[in-house]
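Need tokens for this chain, all 115 residues.
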Amino acid sequence: MLPYMEKEEEINLYELYLILKKRKKIIFVFTIGFFILGILVAIRTNPLYKVSSKILPLQYKRVSFNYEIKASQSKKILEAILNSRELRIRLVKQLNLFPYFYSNKTSQKKLLFIK
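Here are the structure tokens for all 115 residues:
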């Protein structure tokens, strides 16, 4: 046996329009209120960004037609590693240079995400 199914009611668009028209002040106030609240939250929160990447180049790569392509040179690799942000953060941590570079407490709070 099939379960009892109620007869579906039709949606009257005109009645829906009248209800929305009647409540437009409430809809407008809520929309503007949440818009202002969203802007205040966006302004007051400090953005926190952390991006890290490690790329290890291959010395040589064979292509399908047996032609060797050199991926990168060791000088460029060394320069990229020395200029990396992660290496700088590790050095600052190992040598305990946080008080020297970040003397005020707000800068230290921003760097709490660094492990």
